Fold this protein.
Amino acid sequence: MRLERALDAYLRHVTIERGLSEHTVAAYRRDLAGYVDWLSEQGIETTDAIDPRTVTAFIADRAGADPPPAATSLARLQSAVRGWHRFLVREGIETADPTGRLRPPKAPQRLPKALTIEQVERLLAAPSADEPIGMRDRALLELLYATGARVSEAVSLDVDDLAYGDVLRLRGKGDKERIVPVGSYARAAVDAYLTRARPGLAAKGRATARLLLGARGAPLSRQSAWLVIRAAAERAQIDAEVSPHTLRHSFATHLLQGGADVRVVQELLGHASVATTQIYTHVSVDALRDVYATSHPRAR
């Protein structure tokens, strides 16, 4: 099959059948388009002309770039290439998978950076509670910390997703739904926003079911939510880097430090594997060390 046609078939598969997010599909498209371009430069125009040596040469070429790519970027690239070739075999387009012996580089494990509880409290209190945008910002921040939601999940919330009392419905990766509890502080912030701010914002734009709205009444975007978090961090005078994932990291870390079971945290975060969640257990090593130092009779 021609390379471009095979690539289009795979991208339709991951979009429609696997239901991957737009962000993930865009990353696959970008990585695989670079692969197809490289293959064309080598005089390869059809998928049946690709063999293991071809794939190995491509990965080596990318790994030897100047500057060299991060291990995580190279691993993502290999994953995209492997997924494409496996798809071609499953669909009967090709009979052999040239990536069968391809091994991804080992990515360095980076521990998530979590805020302290005191920093989180300052961050949540940073938006003004006296004007509509401030009430919306506080509702967003409280929801992120109370539920561990990804920013993309938070901005995708509809008003009806809160119609369950003290729990919230989130739609995660692959459009998978999960129900998570919402604490009293977050619920109070959301109720204040719904009562005193959202009606005025909604009147400025077209009717929408989205919970969080921008200044002109349109649904709040991921980029705008990122700016809300950065602005709140600046107002709270937090020196640590605060990214869209920081409150999610802090949510998981503080739960584990408080004694929550890792599998419960896995469910709340929407992780498919507990191995993904277990990285947060390493963040709590300082707390374990403190408990040991104060509790064990021969610790000192």
About this structure: The beta strands are 167-171, 177-181. Residues 22-41 form the longest helix (20 residues).
